[in-house]
Amino acid sequence: MTDWNTYREIEDLLFREAHLLDERRFHEWLDLFADDAIYILPLRENLQGDVPPAGHPVIKDDKDMLRARVHALHSGHTNAETPPSMTCHMVANVVVDEVSQGEAAVRSAFMIRQVRKQHDEAWWTGRRHDALRLESGGWKIFRREVLLDATILPRGIHIFF
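RE: above sequence
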């Protein structure tokens, strides 16, 4: 059982992250990730049984690649994000599964509303599995796996989950 203070610190990190993304404060969002962070969005299929995802993930970025994505979003050179989307990230069902030796395994659910060009709307739902590490007195994300509740992506994904 995770102590209340640790749980609140981790939940607060995830809630603050959602606000940073919605306010397009991507450089501050990047600061929530450890330098060796991995961000994965695997391909998902509807198969019976316990079958691992096939093929390559849709996204498998290290922090340098995340930084490049943030730079592209700020540069205005991403067609899919010109004009920028309006998003609202909602995070819920936060469960801290394990805390040991300065690391934590955390699961959460998310729902994101994305609006582009005032008429193109998408809803994204899914779960995240995060691995966090205490660094310099605060929690950092060093591994994030995003499990979208979708097997078909209607367009390119240029938002963060």
